[in-house]
Amino acid sequence: MFVTGTDPVEARIVTSINRPEANLTGVHMLSTLVGPKRLELLHDLVPATESVAILVNPTRATNQHELPDIQGAAHSLGLQLRVLPVSTDVELDVAFATIKEQHIGALLVHGDNFFTNRRDQLVLLTTRHAIPTMFAFREYVVAGGLMSYGPSIRAAYSQAGIYVGRILKGAKPSDLPVVQSINLNAAKVLDLKIPPTLLAIVDEVIE
């Protein structure tokens, strides 16, 4: 049983989404496949911003594969995208110093375990530096982050638990398809006005 934000087929965890064809199945959170949409929504929130930074963990090879799509989206939106590699706490501090020095107007945080494990720290840094930030998971927004577009980690593991129950009752993992699964207070702190068109498509508003 697995829970992953990486494409399980591309990572060769399973051979197919609908028919894993192995003694393994799980939950694909689609976190890393929606980078261009995250960038688009962030642009909708701060349309005057001309530059956006993205935090990427360079030690995870699949992250590099997803960058071209995000860079293409940035080009289409007329945005300058600054890729900031971060895999240590020191590099994280350097990244935020760079954002401040270069007056970068917004930030995209890639869906990666390194960042997820530091979500409270990231929320604090983005608030301290007053940088409008799009996160990968709902949990960041619950912790006080501005906005996210993607799955809930808690819901993903809950789905994994449901699958475990079905397997214990006799289901074969190979027969179970892989499941693909805005904080107004933060906006006030950053002195941002959420456009009505953006609020209209938000699934959950935290106040």
Features:
207 residues, alpha/beta, Rossmann fold, 2 domains, five-stranded parallel sheet, three-stranded parallel sheet, globular
Provide structural commentary.
This protein has 207 residues and is α/β, with parallel strands linked by helices. It has two domains: 2-28 and 152-180, Rossmann fold; 32-149 and 182-199, 3-Layer(aba) Sandwich (Rossmann fold), CATH 3.40.50.2300. 42% of the residues lie in helices and 14% in strands. The protein is built from nine helices and eight strands. The strands form two sheets. The chain has a five-stranded parallel beta sheet, sandwiched between helices. Strand 3 (51-56), helix 2 (61-77) and strand 4 (80-85) form a beta-alpha-beta unit. It is globular, with a radius of gyration of 18 Å. The model has no long low-confidence stretch (mean pLDDT 79).
Layout of secondary structure:
Elements: E1 2-4, E2 26-28, H1 35-45, E3 51-56, H2 61-77, E4 80-85, H3 89-101, E5 106-109, H4 113-116, H5 119-128, E6 133-135, H6 138-142, E7 147-148, H7 153-168, E8 179-180, H8 184-189, H9 196-199
Parallel strand pairs: 1-2, 2-8, 3-4, 3-5, 5-6, 6-7
Q: What's a concise summary of this model?
A:
The protein is an alpha/beta fold. Helix content is 42%, strand content 14%.
